[in-house]
Amino acid sequence: MQNYSKELIAASTIPIVLSILKRGDNYGYKIIKEVQEISEGALNWKEGSLYPVLTKLEKNKLISSYIKTENGRNRKYYSLNDTGKSFLVQLQSEWQSLHEIMQKIWRPQNPLILE
Amino acid sequence: MAPTKPFDLRIEVDTYINRLDNNLLLNGEETDELRDHFHCQVEELSELGLSEAEAFEVSKMRFGERQLIQTEFHKAKPMKMISRYLMVGLLLFFSVRLVEVVISHCSAIMFLLINKFNVSMKTANVVDLGLKASLLIILFSCIYFGLKRGRISKWLLWAIPFMSILGLISTPMLYSFGMRHNHDVYISIVGKAIMNSNIIMLISYLLSIGLFFVLWHRNGKGLRLSN
Question: Do B68 and A74 touch (CB under 8 A)?
């Protein structure tokens, strides 16, 4: 199984969380489970580290929250708002562009064409 | 053999969250969220055949290192951290002022002993020093045991500044009380009282520094307040 560096995991957390919330409102534990499922267990977060990220995103008004009582417990749901959606578009473009650069760099070099 | 305490998931989760939030950064919604996280995971792991206690141990491991999560919460809420440090700083400042004021007021006893009970200056001096030292021991014992239990009452946040300001206002009354005496005797008594106070204040500052370092290492840099 692929092991990702701590730095890469940290850098990708915000785009991943925002992308999960783009699919629909969700709560902390379920977000972790979805990420594990999508990455087939490769992206194994330290689960507690998600909550400060959610707090930060909410503070920066990229997501909003509401409380729902389920199974006799208060559950905090998050939803992506318009600012969050625009921010995610920006992040997607950045990651896409970075990915393309990496692909170009790593592509085997073409032999020199002599005119 | 002592009976083993049955595992109570609710209590265990609450204790874990309280330890995690020893700087009181989290609000009610956030603690509910963490509570829900642990309950969800324990339910899921229990379905796989683990006992609640085992499932909770696994959940804690998966949750991550406590100090790391605390640091992440601190980063997410920088203003709250600053206000908390400011509050603790003000509390310490007023506490030291209160110690100074109480010690000054103790000096009045010296005047009473000499003037009303005709006690010798030497005996009054010993009584004054003993009284101030006892006061210091009581005060530091209260603080030490309060912090050792991990809790300081919120009412202290109001009581300490209030009492220290009240004490500062009433201090001049103490000196006007002394001025009624023979000037030379007054100066002599005040000199002894001030010297005793300085000794006690020096010990008090040294104890404060020692206490701060002990608690800093023991309590993970946190000061917990109760209702």
Answer: no
